[in-house]
Design brief:
Order of helices and strands: HHHHHHHHHHHHHHHHEEHHHHH
Structural class: mainly alpha
Radius of gyration: 22 Å
Number of helices: 21
Number of strands: 2
Distance between the termini: 8 Å
Oligomer: single chain
Strand content: under 5%
């Protein structure tokens, strides 16, 4: 591990992040707001910090290797989350504590979408833009890290699709090929965002709302510029556009590249993970829509529109809302939160355990049942007609076990802080799955929670975004041994 190369990369990240404080200044000027100064101050502080870290080590010749990659990945989210609080802290329009600003910043960058804010419709547009931009930046960061760093852990994810990906690493150090990968993925991400924004605008959104909501839609973040979220627009066309782009953004971006490169839409269905993802979405829609209609909650048309939208929004861990789904009858709110554990595909902007891991867990469970009857049978687990190494299968089970342990530890900590079980369970699921909305006291926002609960949930958001092991590996003594 080389501290100099870690500092060099971290310094560059901060310098680049400081530049993202400039667009809100333009927004402030366009809308004649007096908030340009807070973003200019945040820009200068972040830029100065980046230069102080980068300049002393800018000549470092060491290459970024596996251990350095883990540290940089974790610091990327931690340090940028802290500096991301600056505009919120400096703003008189919010008057938030540091913990609240950290919660909002972490939630934005991890594309969780949980918020402590209310009265969004009355906030300055520059602050609203900055908040949406945080999610968009977090979304592309997730994708690049998913194909560049997480495969080194071998915990079951994008590495399953190495042959299809446009360039995930195959050795123990980060090579120039990752730059090529990041460039391709960024182009896809930018194209989806621009297309989404144009579609929103054509459907009736203002230019500002179209751009900002495209940020949080493609990032699967769920932040909105209105308290009523997507429901504010009261438009079936906007809901349909949002649903489409949430589904698309939940698919492995490496698969998007393959489809684009080979001009073959059929790959979306022949890919086992994407097929399982789309199948669960369709089955989930049928269950929710039929139950909403059978229970008399909505008429048939509204049952389809509201049920399909909310199912996609929650399962993909976006968190947009058009209705108060927490008040839907009987099992539906819990069913929706349950589906967020499945989440989206590996290598997407979505959260959750990931469909790729669920696919392996399902195949392994079926194999174990079959071997009870045929104990001598050799039954390899295959994805895309390739055998999944036992190392990855074991790692997926380990991930699942650690995930459950972390989940219920967080629930217990929240219960100890005085929350009821429904609130504690759903808030933990919403943070660890990077979902956002929960049930009970966190159905609308998280402002009523104590600072202790907010810090716990911030940690959960980071754990969920970093696939748990990426962060926990730093607590292992083995990691720090030479």
């Amino acid at each position: 591990m080389h501290a100099t190369v870690t500092a060099r990369v971290l310094g560059l990240l901060l310098i680049l992040f400081s530049v993202t404080m400039l667009p809100p200044i333009a927004v402030s000027i366009i809308y004649s707001e007096s908030f340009a100064g807070i973003f200019l101050s945040a820009f200068l502080i972040t830029l100065l910090a980046g230069l102080v870290i980068w300049l002393p080590v800018r000549q470092s010749a060491h290459e970024l290797r596996t251990r350095d990659g883990f540290i940089v990945t974790v610091l990327f989210w931690l340090v940028l989350s802290v500096f991301g609080t600056l505009p919120f802290l400096f703003s008189d329009a919010l008057e938030l504590s540091f913990v609240d600003t950290l919660f909002e910043s972490v939630s934005g960058l991890t594309t969780t979408g949980a918020t402590v804010l209310s009265g969004l419709d009355d906030l300055p547009k520059s602050l609203l833009y900055y908040r949406q931009q945080l999610q968009w930046l977090g979304g592309i960061g997730i994708i690049v890290i998913a194909v560049a760093v997480l495969p080194m852990l071998g915990v079951g994810g994008v590495q399953i699709y190495r042959a299809e990906a446009p360039g995930p690493i195959k050795d123990t150090k980060i090579t120039p090929r990752i730059t090529e990968t990041a460039t391709v993925l960024f182009k896809i991400y930018l194209t989806l965002t621009a297309t989404c924004a144009i579609a929103y605008w054509c459907a009736g959104m203002s230019t500002f709302d179209a751009i900002t909501h495209s940020f949080s839609t493609v990032a699967i973040g769920g932040f909105s510029t209105h308290d009523e979220s997507i429901g504010f627009f009261n438009s079936t066309a906007i809901m349909a556009i949002c649903t489409f782009f949430m589904v698309v953004s939940g698919i492995n971006f490496a698969l998007h590249y393959t489809v684009w490169h080979d001009r073959a839409l059929l790959f979306y269905w022949t890919d086992p993970e994407a097929r399982m993802y789309l199948t669960i979405l369709l089955l989930g829609m049928m269950i929710v829509c039929l139950f909403l209609y059978a229970s008399g909650t909505y008429a048939w048309d509204d049952s389809i529109i509201q049920g399909a939208f909310q199912l996609v929004s929650i399962m993909t861990t976006t968190g947009f809302a058009t209705a108060e789904f927490d008040s839907w009858p009987t099992f539906l709110p819990y069913f929706l939160i349950f589906l967020s554990f499945f989440g989206a595909c590996a290598g997407s902007t979505g959260g959750g355990i990931k469909i790729g891991r669920m696919l392996i867990l399902m195949q392994q469970s079926i194999r174990e049942i079959y071997q009870l009857v045929h104990p001598n049978a050799v039954l390899p687990i295959k994805i895309n007609n390739r055998k999944v190494p036992d190392r990855i299968v074991d790692a997926v089970w380990a991930f699942f076990g650690v995930y459950l342990a972390v989940f219920y530890l967080m629930v217990l900590l929240l219960l100890a802080d005085g929350l009821d079980y429904v609130t504690a369970w759903s808030a933990t699921a919403a943070s660890l799955n990077n979902l956002g909305p929960g049930l009970g006291a966190v159905a609308n926002n998280y402002s009523e929670l104590t600072d202790f609960s907010k810090v716990i949930l911030c940690f959960g958001m980071l754990l969920g975004r970093l696939e748990i092991f990426t962060l926990l590996v730093l607590f292992s003594p083995t990691f720090w041994r030479r």
